[in-house]
């Protein structure tokens, strides 16, 4: 199973560290690995650290935090991917001065069968919005301190001017629902409260609402049309998961996070998709997916699918 690797970027003071701490404390059972420049930047509570070996700290909630210099990212990603019990997600923090496209390229270059690049999250301070070079390539914008922004529509418009269809999630204290980023695995409940639950902030359980749009059809999809749709996603669409049917022998499990698409061969027939994001027009999303069934595919259309297929 290949681990998704998310990059988190943003200017100093935007809320990257707050977001990382929130995910570590409120992962709803997800095992998350975090790659940072130094432990101090995450400010892990001493009670949460179960053990530390070299540059890797094991947390009592089964999460992992580790440190890597710029040239060590690939090596540390490999170590995190080898952790047992296995992690569900790896998050790489770009330092305040790092160029987000460079961070994304580093992860993509290190890409292996054990982990894969799953997109870039850009954290923006809504009161003092700075975007830099990360906005055009961002897959999700977390608009922090949203309740303090006088004209949030203006800030969103400035974001959309550089990245027209990127999902924008307004929030405070960088609180986002982890299920927007990842499917939380079902695990047996613990017999007693863990440190994770004891340290959980009771005021931190409410998250900004995101949307999910379901689409089901027994009609065969045109692969060329669907791939074009996923490249130029409907506004606000961040993630999609489910099954797509391109015809006999060509049904796949689809996993889309930002611009990262992965397909795995599956048996059966029919398409069942769930699209996840914020600010989506549900009717537009369903109509766009329906359009993928209206034009029969030529015999070469399936060839474009192969580059996204993984074992």
UniProtKB/TrEMBL annotation:
GO molecular function, one term: hydrolase activity
SUPFAM superfamilies, per database record: P-loop containing nucleoside triphosphate hydrolases
Gene3D superfamilies, per the entry: CobW-like, C-terminal domain, P-loop containing nucleotide triphosphate hydrolases
Domain of life where this protein originates: Bacteria
Residue ranges occupied by any CobW C-terminal domain in the UniProt entry: 210-293
InterPro entries noted in UniProt: CobW-likC_sf, CobW-like_C, CobW/HypB/UreG_nucleotide-bd, P-loop_NTPase, Zinc-reg_GTPase_activator
GO cellular component, one term: cytoplasm
Keywords: Chaperone, Hydrolase, Nucleotide-binding
The reaction(s) this protein catalyses: GTP + H2O = GDP + phosphate + H(+)
CDD domains: CobW-like
Residues in coiled coil: none
Short name of any one Pfam family annotated for the protein: cobW
Family (UniProt): Belongs to the SIMIBI class G3E GTPase family. ZNG1 subfamily.
UniProt-recorded name of the protein: Cobalamin biosynthesis protein
Annotated organism of origin: Mycolicibacterium mucogenicum (Mycobacterium mucogenicum)
Lineage, uppermost ranks: Bacteria, Bacillati, Actinomycetota, Actinomycetes, Mycobacteriales
């Amino acid at each position: 199973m290949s681990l998704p690797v998310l990059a988190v970027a943003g200017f100093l003071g935007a809320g990257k560290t707050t977001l990382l701490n929130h995910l570590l404390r409120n992962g709803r059972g997800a095992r998350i690995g975090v790659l940072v420049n130094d432990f101090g930047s995450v400010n892990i509570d001493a009670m949460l650290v179960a053990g530390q070996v070299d540059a890797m700290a094991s947390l009592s909630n089964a999460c992992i935090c580790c440190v890597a210099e710029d040239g060590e990212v690939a090596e540390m990603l490999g170590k995190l991917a080898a952790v047992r019990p296995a992690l569900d997600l790896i998050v790489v923090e770009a330092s305040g001065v790092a160029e987000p496209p460079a961070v994304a390229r580093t992860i993509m270059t290190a890409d292996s069968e054990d982990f894969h690049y799953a997109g870039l999250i850009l954290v923006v301070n809504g009161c003092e919005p700075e975007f830099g070079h990360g906005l055009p390539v961002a897959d999700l914008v977390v608009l922090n301190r949203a309740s303090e922004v006088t004209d949030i529509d203006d800030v969103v418009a400035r974001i959309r001017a550089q990245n027209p269809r990127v999902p924008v999630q307004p929030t405070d204290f960088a609180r986002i629902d982890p299920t927007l980023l990842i499917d939380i695995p079902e695990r047996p409940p613990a017999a007693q409260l863990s440190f994770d639950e004891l340290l959980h902030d009771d005021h931190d359980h409410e998250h900004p609402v995101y949307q999910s749009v379901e689409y089901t059809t027994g009609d065969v999809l045109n692969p060329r049309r669907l791939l074009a749709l996923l490249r130029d996603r409907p506004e606000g669409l961040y993630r999609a998961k489910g099954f797509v049917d391109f015809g006999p022998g060509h049904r796949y499990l689809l996993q889309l996070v930002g611009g990262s698409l992965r397909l795995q061969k599956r048996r059966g027939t029919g398409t069942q998709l769930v699209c996840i994001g914020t600010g989506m027009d549900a009717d537009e999303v369903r109509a766009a997916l329906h359009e993928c069934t209206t034009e029969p595919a030529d015999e070469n259309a399936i060839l474009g699918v192969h580059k996204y297929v993984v074992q």
